[in-house]
Each structure stands twice: as C-alpha cells, then as structure tokens.
Amino acid sequence: MDCIFCKIVAGEIPSDILYRDEEVVAFRDINPQAPVHVQVIPKEHIAYLSDVTEEQSGLLGRMAAVANRLAKSEGIAEKGYRIVVNCGEQGGQLVPHLHMHLLGGRQLSGQLG
Ligand code: 5GP
Ligand code: ZN
Q: Is 37 a catalytic residue?
C-alpha cells in the first residue's frame, strides 16, 4: 500500500521512532511545528478518525496514553501540551493514516483553526 506512515511502521522509510508496541508506533515529525512534535499512530492502516469503529475505539485511548507517556519522557508534561487529530481535507489532514500530533515545548497559540 502506498502509505507513508505504513512505510514508516514497516521500516521502509527511516524515521526517529520513539515508541513501538503491538498496536501503536510513535516517531518525530519530519517538519516539527514545536520543539516537541511527535506522531502517534496505529500500526494498522486506518485512514481517518471517522473510520474508527466502536470496536476499535479503545485504540484511541491507547494512542492518547502513549502520547501522555511521551509527553513525560520528552519533558513537556508539566508545562502542558496539545494533542491534535486532523480529519479529512477541511480538517487539514494531509497524510491519510490516522495520527495524533503531540505538540509542546513552547506556548502554543490559542487559535485552533
Ligand atoms: P496532517 O496534516 O496529515 O495532520 O499531518 C501530517 C504530518 O506528517 C505533518 O506534520 C508532516 O510533517 C508529517 N510527515 C509527513 N511525511 C512524513 C515523513 O515521511 N516522516 C515523518 N516523520 N513525518 C512526516
Ligand atoms: Zn497507512
């Protein structure tokens, strides 16, 4: 499948991987928008947040837990951070493989869109 994030999971595209378990992989964003900018993704190819079924909804909690754990290890947990999931074209999603952005390490703007 021609998916950048599936290729990162498979190791076919190099990336700075920070975390990996049976279901979730996390790696540094190639074009960071903040001092800490990490992508937390499911190993399974799910294109959009809107594709997540009831049965798969636990996956989102696991992704958030990994983001929280990385916020601690990246040293941004105390001051605060932001988790963003873009969904679809107008949601600003460029890579169609579900991902949580973990952003922190500076004061983030109050603007969301
Ligand atoms: P989106 O706009 O889809 O929510 O975010 C996609 C994110 O993936 C962007 O922040 C972009 O910098 C990141 N990204 C795109 N291609 C690559 C890549 O090949 N490697 C890494 N590490 N990040 C990527
Ligand atoms: Zn994929």
A: no
d(CA 45, ligand 1 centre) in Å: 15
Which residue of the set 37, 45, 97, 99 is catalytic?
99
Whole-model pTM?
A: 0.98
Q: How far is CA 36 from the centre of its chain?
A: 12
Residue 100 C-alpha to ligand 2 middle, in angstroms? 13
Is the distance from the beta carbon of residue 30 to the nearest atom of ligand 1 less than 6 Å?
yes
pLDDT per position as a tens digit, 80-111: 999 999 999 999 999 999 999 999 999 999 99
Sign, CA torsion 86/92/96/97: negative
Instruction: Pick the closest to residue 43 from 67, 16, 24, 15 (CA basis).
Output: 24
Contacts of 102 (CB under 8 A, 6+ apart): 26, 36, 37, 38, 39, 40, 67, 70, 71, 74, 81, 82, 83
CB atoms within 10 A of CB 19: 15
